[in-house]
Write a structure and sequence with these properties.
The protein is built from 13 helices and no strands. It is mainly α. α3 runs antiparallel to α4, α4 packs antiparallel against α5 and α5 packs antiparallel against α6.
Length: 274
């Protein structure tokens, strides 16, 4: 008797819960139109909303069947990350782009963007040289691989700035050694500037410091050699004037002469113009 009652109650409970359970509703997947998403991304990009644009470009890439459009969406997403100073994320995005679309027409621009990102991460070369060296490495790679690119001129200019920063670091260290009277390390640093960075704006001061140190150490002949180099190449320089004051009044700076071949070169150019 009790068994029958228990079975009836159990059956009733199961039936109750079965009726109470909601039927699952099938929701069909909405297909994303990648062209529409790309347009939304591009519109946001033009408005300067790079954060929103990056998300839309990434979404468009995932839904494009055409490789060309997917690749373009990818590089645009990378640029948007660069635009909001997400440098690490942008570099990762570019690396993925280069791996996934190695034959895309924007590969050169991707390498330019890599160099640009490293250049813009340079802060203070006196404290940390790693960003400077990394930027030079990436710029040199680009200039070697794509010397005729439209972006080469800009990166060549940036490379000159990087070289100047490297020279500035050497001069900064040299002046520190001078301040603590460590003459040999100071001379070595200054010679690096003369040998490796002689096209920078710091060459004049480096030569003057060598005049200064050698004169202080009693090496007058050596001081005059550096003064002559300074005077021959930069005789209107403030640093040459200072070097001249250090040496005795009988010392006459060398005057740079204009060679005849320079004039002939000018004449050739004039003839070509005519």
């Amino acid at each position: 008797m009790f068994s029958r009652i228990f079975l009836i109650i159990s059956f009733s409970i199961i039936l109750l819960f079965s009726c109470a359970k909601k039927e699952e509703v099938y929701v069909p997947e909405v297909k994303v139109d990648p062209y529409k998403v790309y347009e939304e991304a591009y519109e946001a990009f033009n408005k300067g909303d790079y954060f929103f644009a990056q998300k839309k470009f990434s979404k468009a890439e995932l839904n494009f069947d055409v490789v060309e459009y997917a690749a373009k969406s990818s590089i645009m997403a990378s640029y948007c990350l660069y635009g909001i100073n997400f440098y690490v994320e942008s570099l990762e995005s570019i690396k993925r782009y280069l791996k996934k679309y190695p034959a895309d027409k924007n590969v050169i621009y991707a390498h330019y963007l890599i160099a640009l990102i490293h250049f813009e991460q340079i802060t203070d070369e006196k404290k940390d040289m790693e960003p400077v060296l990394k930027a030079k490495e990436k710029i040199d790679f680009f200039l070697n691989e794509f010397p005729d690119s439209d972006y080469a001129i800009d990166l060549q200019f940036k490379r000159d700035l990087v070289i100047n920063q490297m020279a500035a670091k050497e001069l900064f260290v040299a002046k520190y050694y001078i301040s603590v009277q460590k003459w040999i390390p100071a001379i070595n640093r200054l010679k690096i500037i003369i040998k490796e960075y002689n096209q920078t704006i710091f060459i004049e001061e480096a030569l003057h410091r060598l005049v200064e140190i050698n004169y202080y150490l009693g090496l007058d002949d050596q001081a005059k050699i550096y003064a002559k180099i300074l005077g021959y190449n930069y005789n209107s320089s403030e640093w040459f004037q200072q070097s001249y004051k250090i040496l005795n009044k009988d010392y006459k700076p060398a005057v740079k002469k204009v060679e005849n071949k320079d004039k002939s070169l000018i004449n050739k150019i004039i003839r070509k113009i005519k």
